[in-house]
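User: Good morning. I'm curious how S-adenosylmethionine would be positioned relative to this chain. Could you predict the structure with it bound?
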Amino acid sequence: MPPVSPPSSLRSPPTSGARTTYRLRVSDVSKIVCHRLQNSTEEYLVRWKIAGGSTNTKSTIYSWHCISELSKCLHYVQEYIEKLPKSRPDAAFVAIPAAASRKRKFSSDSQITGSSSSSGNLTPRDWAHVSREPSVISRKDRGEKGTCPVSGVTAEQSNDPAVQEVDARKLPDQFMLKDAAQAPVSAAERAIQATFQAKLRSVKNTEWENHVDNTAPSLNFTFISDFVLGEGVYRSDADAHVGCENPCRPNMGQNLGCEYPRDCACLEYAAVDKDLLKEGDMARYAQYLEDWDTDGFLADSRGLPKRFPYRVSKDRIVPSTLMKFYLEQRYPIYECNLNCDCGKVCKSRVVQKGREVPLVIFKTSNGRGWGVYCKEQLVKGEFIDTYIGEVLTNEETNRREELAGKDKASYLYSLDKFCGDDPNNDLTKDNCYVVDGQHMGGPTRFINHSCEPNCQQYTVSYNKHDLRIYDLAFFAVEDIPPRTELTFDYMDQDEAELEDVMRKREAKAADPAYRDKQRCNCGARKCRWYLWE
Ligand SMILES: C[S@@+](CC[C@H](N)C(=O)[O-])C[C@H]1O[C@@H](n2cnc3c(N)ncnc32)[C@H](O)[C@@H]1O
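Assistant: Good morning! Here's the predicted structure, ligand included:
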């Protein structure tokens, strides 16, 4: 094999000891297809991305890499490990220190271009020329002939005699799979855990722990602090929100701010407090009830007494809690906004101030993946956090759902609270926006379902004119002791009688339509057996 001199645009091969400075670029990696233990080092077989397509061809490039070289693409390693048989010899749990510190939606080719970079990133061509044992695929060490699966530029161009050409479509081969069955993945698991821990550092008041196995939550996930709007999704500017006008002023209502006055412009659709109606309100109230029949939550309640949403202690030592009416009726809550005159201390500003309670993302022990608990006691009606993620159009949501397949976990939450309420607006369950927390979100995207949940989601709006985007806020619906898993009902159903649930379960068991549906493992007495119906 004639030696090939690297083109001048490529860096010269590093001398020994320099390899850890090289890291593969995410954009160059297609997937990890195998792993092995080589000289006591875990190595992972990378399939390089093919320019212009993803089909694996005869001459796709592959190379072996140790974990430090893969530090930018650990999510590929994580995906690979997740698919390994759970009965592997090294799959036993080795205690990892706890980290410091309605459908499937919930309702409401071989020519790889690229040159060496100056940043320590390696391109496929670099690898072919660098051609160092053991990172370049080689079977020479095992004395097997013709099995070196580096292809494309490698076999002819590499000056490493260990490098030979094989048909890349047949990788990983049986020898590799045999080696992989025996090789540990612990170095990768440690690196994945450390990377997730580093990601979590940006999230206030949040930890994670795993006393079940050696996994970490997906690295293919970004923590965000507000909705990220997808293509075709629009939201009105905060500056344009209708604020309260007369008679609001800062520090009104016993120095606690807004009292949900009758005439406030921002409270046009707020819930009416029937108990406070006066004689002179009756004609107006009759009109409101008439409007309610057609407009639902968008019935105009201006001029009528309102139901204030939160109970706030004067000293604010006890947390604000949602009033019984809202807890039970699920009426939309209107919080004051940037343009309201009531000031920062207004007591109708709770959800907008964000989470205050400490959450822990933990691995469940009964196959429900990750869950969430709060380290502290939560009281009934206490705000926990909002559900955030990418806000998508229905078309994009459908596309993602089809791609995911029915067995995949769902992180979709429909913003459908106001569907059908506005006769001038054709907002329906088929065209409302959907929040997808799969790739971006906050800790609440790890909250699991229960048929007897201890939390519920409530609609919180700052802008009465925006029926499409509002906050999905979770509140405790009972007192929740510290370290108790937080759950909500993905189907958002009202509590049913046990006999009724049991009767329906029998019917579902006999119904072939339920055969493919995702089973619920919440363990509640009134479990409905399926996550989505
Ligand atoms: C929003 S995610 C919750 C977080 C998820 N456990 C994780 O590890 O990322 C929803 C997914 O969690 C799983 N899940 C949640 N609650 C469950 C339950 N009660 N029984 C079985 N699986 C559940 C299902 O895979 C579901 O699609």
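DSSP finds ten helices and 23 strands in the chain. The first strand starts at residue 23 and ends at 24.
Let me know if you'd like a different ligand tried.
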